[in-house]
């Protein structure tokens, strides 16, 4: 089980939901299930409208660092991540500050999602 906390000025208060361990749904799918109003358009990693700031709340190494090629390109073009942050994710498994909710797979780790 992992706690996923959504926080946004678009919501009256933060919402924390539980993602089941072993579940391989996207962050956007979890948000939609719980009626969290993350903006989205394409749901295919192409428009960048679902970009969210994701923080891992754990001392352990982050589990869900993998960025798809689409995600790297869209986040870079949107100015949400730098080439150095892409390299850090690829080489050192350091999580970038922003992810696309429609591409990010929720893993068994507690996260805070700002949008
Ligand atoms: Fe378009 Fe996620 S909804 S990139």
3D architecture notes:
The chain is α+β, with helices and mostly antiparallel strands and 115 residues long. It has one domain: Beta-grasp domain (Ubiquitin-like (UB roll), Roll). Helix content is 23%, strand content 21%. It contains three helices and five strands. The chain has helices at residues 27-33, 69-77, 83-92; strands spanning 2-7, 15-19, 51-56, 98-100, 111-114. The chain has a five-stranded mixed sheet, covered by helices on one side. Bound molecules: FE2/S2 (inorganic) cluster (FES). FE2/S2 (inorganic) cluster is lined by residues 40-43, 45-50, 74, 100, 102. Pfam families: Fer2 (PF00111). GO terms for molecular function: 2 iron, 2 sulfur cluster binding.
CATH topology label: Ubiquitin-like (UB roll)
The total of beta strands comes to 5
CATH architecture descriptor name: Roll
Widest beta sheet: strand line-up: 2-1-5-3-4
By CATH reckoning, the class would read Alpha Beta
Low-confidence stretches: none
Rg to the nearest angstrom? Answer: 13 Å
Q: How many structural domains can be distinguished in the coordinates?
A: 1
Secondary structure category: alpha+beta
The H/E string reads EEHEHHEE
Mean pLDDT, to the nearest integer, reads 90
Q: Which overall shape is indicated by the principal axes computed on the Cα atoms?
A: globular
Q: Helical region count?
A: 3
Key phrases:
115 residues, alpha+beta, globular, binds FE2/S2 (inorganic) cluster, 2 iron, 2 sulfur cluster binding, Beta-grasp_dom_sf, 2Fe-2S_ferredoxin-type, 2Fe2S_fd_BS
